[in-house]
């Protein structure tokens, strides 16, 4: 039996010697919670032991292995609980969570782990409940779950004894390095693992400095005199600026290399040579070049062989980054990329859609330099962080990794073909396969030709809706005028509609520096829960794209007719809406209103157009409420199809607008009648109340005395004050004795029931609308608004 005293803890264990082997467990002095109280072991005095005399004990391998299994099971349960928030949003934890006594401070009492997890679940639910009914945690597959659990293993294994930790991490790091070097054809390389590609650039720049200036490790930045870094204008400028800030280098060290003319945004190698020669002449040190291999927005690939020749002649470090580097994992033939660059960065997490994988930097080895000098803890930070990759690569296997990457490149090729067949779509990215139409699949079993592979392996498709104008040459962007802004809005609409109708195709709406708003498809930037679309799903995408592009083309064509009709209309005004992608905006303005646009008239005009939109939306959702640049309400007309009759559509707007205008006049007349009726009722009741007071005498209204007086001489029953009702049909205020006598409202004249006698005329009738016409208010029927005021004794 192995016992641990209360004041001791198990800190470390080493790798498994075999199925029936044992673990070496180191016992060190430490203050911990009661560990083995249930074993009835008395606490021995704490004795400090030198490191050479540490006490070792042996326990069965299965016992220690159970710790990892228990950690895996617990982590799996917690992850599955978070996944249930996505699949079952209604199952919110019902157990009330006690809040800390003081908001913002840690509660003094401890909380159970289950309560803490429940609080986290509740936090996730409430954070998304007000905005999105779907939660942000998608379900995990087996590989993704293993990758997340591996992070728990990293934290667990970091408590091993240093010698044991070194042995475990050396094995994990060497395996991962060997596998990655073989998969991505970078032999005899070293690896480092980082949180993002920006840290990769920083690490590569440090390697370039150490390689070029060995005295940098001892003398610091003073040993590096006036370095120069080169990057293209559409590459990782932000990452390089971050690296310079971290190393204390001025931003003047960065040289922006322009793109080659007619080469789809790639670096101009001739200009790079001139910049390097000029820097050498000015006693600067050319140090670092970042090359694009599909890293830009449009996935451009630089001429890597030519760049490497220039860098090798000038002793400059060449770093490559981009999604097209993933094509190296598909090559099965012989070959190597060690003679094409000095380092590459691999974003395996986004390429394989596996969460929380580090970004890998593969680089050539540097002689006589210990790379651990860059790490605060070389064992943990540089080696143990490879555990997630170590588990994930084994869970996937070489074949599945290659298959996933091939599927991604194939989806790019299929999407490009779909777009090229769609009239009205302009493609801004490069054609996959080059001019000869070679696919990545064709080169799988061929000897590795990295430059050709990078040329045909296009990782992204960027496109936009664009109707070619006859006065604009093909390939030249339009002037950024009104039409360009309108096309931007149409492309935003197209991207949003396809995102809604085809969620399986991960599209991104971007703002291109030259061509404006565009849509980008990149299957190498997948997040958790996403996958490469299948060929069958891409057929659905093609049908959806054709439908929406047809709507855009029809809308742009009908827009000219729409503007002409509105311009000729007497009651419609064209309202410019620069941020609206539909037909446009109109405002219904009755005759004569434009000459009397006072504040009150503007309010009435806004109300009229608001009512118009509400009426139109009851029959067609294409009408929406808008606001012009003058702040007044207008009617926005959305997208239309080829079959839409724009003239008929605007006739409907005019017809409904006039109907709403007439109804508003009736309502205004009714409101005026009601207002005057209330005033007449108030005056009549006040007058009758005063008359009754004088007729009855003051004594009847004195407390106690009035009761005796009324008992001695009761008042007549018919002398009470009559109530009033407002007859909207006739525009008069009438007394209510007939209502109380017959217990109903009775009409006379045309509205009388056949065969019935006419009711007696009310005792009081007061006209409240001298100019009121019965025909005007006939639309309201025989409804009346009663204003009842009864005074009791």
Automatic annotation (TrEMBL):
Q: Where is the PDXDC1-like third domain?
A: 562-665
Quote the protein name from its UniProt record: Pyridoxal-dependent decarboxylase domain-containing protein 1
Q: Which UniProt keywords apply?
A: Decarboxylase, Lyase, Pyridoxal phosphate
Polar residues bias (residue ranges): 763-775
Q: Which BP terms does GO give this entry? A: carboxylic acid metabolic process
Q: Name one Pfam family in it.
A: PDXDC1-like_cen2
The organism encoding this protein is Nyssomyia neivai
Q: Required cofactors, per record? A: pyridoxal 5'-phosphate
Q: What family does this belong to?
A: Belongs to the group II decarboxylase family.
Q: Where is this region: Disordered?
A: 750-793
Listed GO molecular functions? carboxy-lyase activity; pyridoxal phosphate binding
Ranges of biased composition (kind: Low complexity): 776-787
Annotated membrane-spanning segments are none
> Which residues does the UniProt record annotate as the domain PDXDC1/PDXD2 second?
479-555
């Amino acid at each position: 039996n192995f016992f641990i005293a209360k004041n001791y803890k198990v800190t470390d264990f080493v790798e498994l010697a075999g199925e029936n082997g044992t673990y070496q467990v180191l016992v060190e002095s430490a203050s911990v919670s009661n560990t083995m109280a249930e074993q009835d072991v008395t606490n021995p005095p704490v004795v400090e032991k030198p490191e050479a005399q540490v006490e070792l004990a042996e326990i069965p391998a299965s016992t220690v292995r159970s710790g990892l299994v228990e950690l895996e099971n617990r982590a799996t349960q917690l992850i599955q609980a978070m996944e249930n928030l996505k699949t079952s949003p209604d199952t919110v934890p019902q157990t009330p969570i006690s809040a800390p006594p003081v908001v913002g401070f840690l509660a003094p009492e401890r909380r159970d782990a289950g309560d803490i997890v429940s609080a986290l679940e509740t936090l996730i639910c409430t954070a998304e409940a007000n905005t999105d009914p779907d939660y942000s945690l998608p379900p995990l597959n087996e590989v993704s779950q293993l990758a997340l659990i591996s992070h728990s293993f990293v934290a667990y294994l970091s408590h091993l004894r240093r010698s044991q930790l070194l042995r475990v991490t050396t094995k994990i790091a060497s395996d991962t390095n060997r596998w990655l070097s073989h998969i991505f054809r970078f032999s005899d390389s070293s690896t480092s693992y980082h949180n993002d590609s920006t840290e990769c650039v920083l690490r590569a720049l440090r390697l370039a400095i150490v390689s070029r200036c060995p005295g940098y490790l001892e003398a610091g930045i003073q040993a590096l005199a006036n370095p120069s870094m080169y990057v293209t204008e559409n590459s990782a400028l932000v990452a390089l600026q971050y690296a310079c800030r971290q190393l204390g280098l001025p931003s003047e060290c960065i040289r922006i290399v322009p793109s080659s003319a007619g080469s789809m945004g790639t670096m101009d190698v001739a200009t790079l040579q001139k910049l390097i020669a000029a820097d050498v002449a000015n006693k600067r040190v050319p140090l670092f070049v970042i090359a694009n291999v599909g890293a830009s927005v449009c996935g451009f690939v630089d001429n890597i062989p030519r760049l490497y020749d220039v860098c090798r002649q000038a002793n400059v470090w060449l770093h490559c980054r981009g999604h097209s580097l993933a094509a190296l994992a598909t090559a099965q033939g012989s070959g190597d990329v060690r003679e094409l660059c000095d380092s590459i960065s691999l974003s395996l997490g986004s390429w394989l859609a596996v969460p929380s994988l580090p970004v890998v930097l593969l680089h050539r080895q540097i002689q006589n330099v210990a790379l651990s000098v860059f790490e605060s803890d070389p064992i943990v930070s540089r080696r143990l962080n490879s555990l997630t990759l170590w588990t994930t690569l084994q869970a996937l296997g070489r074949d599945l990794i290659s298959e996933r990457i091939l599927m991604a490149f194939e989806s790019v090729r299929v999407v490009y073909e779909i777009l090229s067949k769609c009239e009205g779509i302009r493609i801004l990215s490069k054609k996959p396969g080059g001019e000869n139409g070679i696919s990545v699949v064709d080169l799988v079993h061929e000897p590795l030709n990295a430059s050709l592979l990078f040329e045909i392996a296009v990782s992204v498709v960027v496109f936009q809706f664009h109707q070619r104008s006859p006065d604009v040459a093909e390939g030249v962007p339009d002037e950024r005028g009104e039409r360009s802004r309108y096309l931007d809005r149409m492309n935003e609409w197209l991207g949003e509609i396809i995102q809604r109708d085809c969620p399986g195709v991960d599209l991104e709406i971007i703002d291109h520096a030259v061509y404006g708003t565009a849509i980008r498809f990149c299957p190498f930037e997948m997040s958790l829960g996403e996958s490469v679309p299948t060929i069958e799903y891409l057929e659905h995408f093609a049908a959806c794209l054709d439908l929406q592009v047809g709507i855009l083309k029809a809308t742009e064509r009908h827009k000219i007719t729409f503007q002409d009709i509105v311009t000729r209309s007497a009651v419609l005004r064209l309202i410019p809406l620069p941020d609206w992608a539909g037909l446009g905006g109109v405002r219904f303005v009755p005759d004569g209103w434009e000459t009397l646009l006072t504040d009150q008239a503007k309010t009435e005009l806004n109300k009229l157009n608001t009512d118009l939109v509400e009426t139109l939306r009851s029959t067609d959702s294409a009408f929406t409420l808008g606001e012009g640049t003058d702040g007044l309400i207008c009617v926005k007309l959305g997208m239309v199809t080829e079959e839409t009759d724009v003239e008929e559509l605007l006739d409907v707007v005019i017809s409904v607008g006039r109907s709403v205008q007439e109804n508003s006049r009736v309502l205004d007349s009714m409101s005026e009648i009601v207002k005057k009726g209330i005033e007449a009722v108030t005056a009549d009741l006040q007058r009758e109340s005063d008359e009754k007071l004088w007729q009855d005498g003051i004594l009847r209204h004195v407390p106690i005395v009035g009761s005796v007086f009324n008992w001695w001489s009761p008042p007549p029953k018919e002398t009470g004050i009559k109530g009033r009702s407002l007859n909207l049909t006739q525009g008069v205020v009438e007394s209510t004795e007939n209502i109380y006598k017959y217990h109903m409202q009775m009409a006379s004249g045309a509205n009388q029931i056949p065969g019935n006698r006419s009711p007696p005329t009310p005792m009081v009738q007061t006209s409240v609308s001298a100019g009121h016409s019965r025909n005007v208010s006939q639309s309201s029927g025989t409804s009346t608004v009663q204003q009842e005021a009864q005074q009791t004794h």
